[in-house]
Amino acid sequence: MIAPWAEPVYRARVASYDSAAVIAGDFYRAGYVPEHLRTNQTRTRIPMRLIPKPEGFALTIKVVPGSSQQRIAGEYADGLKVTVTAAPQRGAANDAVIAVLAEALQTAPSNVRIVRGHQNPRKEVLIVGLPAEEIERRLLADR
Asked: Which are the contacts of 12, defined by CB distance < 8 A and separation ≥ 6?
């Protein structure tokens, strides 16, 4: 039931659409798409952000432990999403994250350290010994 004061506006909006579908309340089948969904706006891509630190560059990551694969899944917010097979127990997932990032960066695991978020899926990782451009190139090479 439509409120009496909204009836003229409602009828004007749906007049050119399939009336049976509109009466049934199925606006999408009727071909009516609300204004906020009608715009063809795409989400703007937020680039991976490397934060310069005195020792190297910091990168935020989201870790998904217990996954079926160990890999860099792609960009996530302003960092990376890393999936690891290890469970989040006794630092096993943290060690796996360091191994995945070190392999992707083609550097020693001692050059990759978790600075913040040891017991949190969102972590800050410090990468030592590589310039920012090289870190971005190596981490995003397959994407």
From this structure: none
| Inside any domain, residue 135 | yes
- Shared domain check, 77 and 106: yes
CA pair distance 94, 31, nearest whole angstrom? 50
**Best CA proximity match to 16, nearest among 28, 32, 4:** 32
Contact 104, 139 (CB under 8 A): yes
Contact call for residues 130 and 105 (beta carbons, < 8 A): yes
- How many C-beta neighbours within 10 Å does residue 86 have? 19
pTM equals 0.68
Cα distances from 110 to residues 61, 123, 125, in angstroms, run: 18, 17, 12
55 and 78 share one domain: yes
| Tens-place pLDDT, residues 68-124 | 999 999 888 888 999 999 999 999 999 999 999 999 999 999 999 999 999 999 999
Are the C-beta atoms of residues 123 and 112 closer than 8 Å to each other?
no
Q: What letter represents residue 4's amino acid?
A: P
Distances (CA, A) of 128 to 55, 92, 143: 6, 22, 23
